[in-house]
Amino acid sequence: MDKEYLALLERAYTLVAPKAQRRTEIPKIQVENMPRKTIIPNFGAIAKRLNRDIYFMAKFFQKELAVPGTVEGDVFTLHGEKSPKVVEAVYERFIRYYVVCPVCNSIDTELKKEGRVFVMKCLACGASTPVKPL
């Protein structure tokens, strides 16, 4: 009886523990400044980890920073010099508005467009939350 219980408990920990640790897996943004350009080389990897469309993220950054930008592969280039602290602040704002579940604080969410409204659906708790449009 004790061995069965311990085996089930171990199995439960393997299923639940990764979800509890995912909150700390928000990737850091890398910002490189060039003359009249700001380059984010790991933008595609961030979009993939956060389960977001790279062009949706790029549009948010462009609107928040008020500069045009281009996506080439995984690299996002902003056509204007912005300090790394400003870009990181925009990144944190994006995560707060469009990634983190307001119910359980999980980053395992997906963004879907239902009609004219974007809805964030949490894969951990199942909550659906409308988010503000871009």
From TrEMBL:
Keyword check for NADP: no
NCBIfam families (UniProt xref): PRK03988.1 (NF003067)
Gene that specifies this protein:
eif2b
Name the Gene3D superfamilies for this protein: 3.30.30.170
**Source organism, top-level taxon:** Archaea
The UniProt GO MF terms for this protein read: translation initiation factor activity
SMART domains, alphabetized:
eIF2B_5
Keyword terms: Initiation factor, Protein biosynthesis
Protein name per the record: Translation initiation factor 2 subunit beta
| Similarity comment text for this entry | Belongs to the eIF-2-beta/eIF-5 family.
Asked if the keyword Transport belongs to this entry, the reply reads no
Oligomeric form and interacting partners: Heterotrimer composed of an alpha, a beta and a gamma chain.
Query: InterPro entries under this entry?
Result: IF2/IF5, TIF2_bsu_arc, Transl_init_fac_IF2/IF5_dom, Transl_init_fac_IF2/IF5_N, Transl_init_fac_IF2/IF5_Zn-bd
Q: Which Pfam families match?
A: eIF-5_eIF-2B
Q: What does this protein do?
A: eIF-2 functions in the early steps of protein synthesis by forming a ternary complex with GTP and initiator tRNA.
* Domain annotation Translation initiation factor IF2/IF5: ranges: 21-128
